[in-house]
Design brief:
Elements: H1 9-12, H2 14-27, E1 34-38, H3 40-49, H4 57-65, H5 67-90, E2 95-100, H6 111-126, E3 132-136, H7 143-148, E4 153-155, H8 162-168, E5 174-179, H9 188-201, E6 208-212, H10 222-235
Parallel strand pairs: 1-2, 2-3, 3-4, 4-5, 5-6
Helix pairs in contact: 3-5, 4-5, 5-6, 9-10
């Protein structure tokens, strides 16, 4: 762990900033450019497991059997992520999303210690330079803790009633989501209906960014993606 070098992140990942600078120039000032990265807990899960996590045996074993080593890893990942996000902001992104995709692997009573405290440090480290969206898959029941990180928007997965959850959040916290990605594997008509239902459910609630409840699946149909985008763009009109 001592040999793991968290410095020179901006140099080693300079190609990311270069790509963002190109996109910023191409997009101009009419469209938002979004940056993103994983949370320290999610980074660590991939690092320790070596593949997409199953039961998270390795990282959980480290947490309980080698807590000091785990703390060192999280410290380094937190510092590296702050630097990484800083380089994205310098390259021109308008907002950043933190993906805590494996937050639900932690025990409920340990979520603050294993993940949220590190996310909060990252958001503090960015120091309000751009708005931060926080996506914590399967953790909507920790809404108070998610809000306490300082994130300006919570991205919620498809397992929750987005309208109900949004009404329970403070007005100054926006919401993002949350159509089931599998819908894009079906038909354009089904997709349009699902998207409209979400938009109707969020009517009157300030601060909603339509999105999926997680990533696009490989089986998604282009026609369905187009139907989703057209539905959202044309909804207000």
């Amino acid at each position: 762990m001592d040999k793991l070098d968290a410095t020179e992140v901006t140099t080693r990942l300079s190609y990311v900033a270069e790509a963002l600078q190109i996109l910023r120039k191409e997009l101009g000032d009419t469209k938002a450019l979004l940056g993103f990265g994983g949370s320290p807990w999610t980074w660590a899960s991939y690092m320790l497991e070596g593949v997409s996590p199953g039961n998270y045996e390795r990282i959980k074993s480290m947490v309980h059997e080698q807590p000091e080593t785990f703390e060192k890893l999280m410290e380094k990942l937190t510092v590296a992520t702050i630097d990484y996000f800083g380089s994205q902001i310098d390259a021109g992104v308008d907002a950043i999303q933190i993906f805590d995709s494996w937050g639900s692997a932690s025990a409920g009573t340990e979520y603050e210690a294993l993940s949220l405290q590190w996310i909060r440090r990252i958001i503090d480290g960015v120091a309000g330079r751009v708005p931060i969206t926080l996506f914590a898959k399967g953790m909507a029941h920790h809404a108070d803790g998610l809000v306490a990180t300082g994130a300006k928007m919570l991205s919620l997965d498809w397992t929750v009633d987005l309208g109900k959850t949004a009404r329970e959040l403070p007005d100054h916290v926006a919401v993002q989501g949350n159509m089931d990605p599998v819908i894009l594997n079906t038909t354009p008509d089904i997709t349009k209906s699902a998207a409209t239902k979400i938009l109707d459910n969020l009517q009157g609630r300030p601060g909603h960014v339509f999105n999926l409840g997680h990533g696009v699946l490989p089986q998604a149909k282009i026609a369905c993606v187009e139907a989703m985008m057209e539905t959202v763009v044309n909804y207000a009109s």
